[in-house]
Amino acid sequence: MTKSGLVGRVVVAAALLGSVAGCGLVSFDVDQDIPQQMVPGSPLGSLLPAALFAIPMNVDIKSETGSHGTGPANSVTLSSISLTVTSPAGATFDFVDSIIIDISGPGLSEVEIARLQPVPGTTSIAIPPSGGVDLLPYINAGATITAKASGHMPASDTTFVGKVVVTVHV
Length: 170
Prior knowledge:
This protein is α+β, with helices and mostly antiparallel strands.
């Protein structure tokens, strides 16, 4: 192969890669921690309050795409949400029957993005995404993620942390 033929193939390959990046085939994950949350204990086993937690979704999409050297985001989807009990020692999510995660934002309707039912009585749980929801307009508007749970109060104060992972598609 001649040098000019090789250069031509490299240019064509680079052009194809560039067009692929512009067609939404490049994606990367961004995660946000869910800060420590506490569910008050109740020896009587009262019902859980409807909202388990509500946190702002603080992902700077423009900064994230810039740091990855990509173009602007076309969409953002939920990859995973996980929660882990941190105290008391040996505690689990056995007090929760179901969890629904919703996202909302100013001027946007609230929509379900993840659900787990039944909730396993384990220390860590993964809440599977409902799928198909583009989170980009919500994140750009200043989204809030809310966890709604059913079940009963744990016997003692229980704290947990978590992580939300979204995939940015450019």
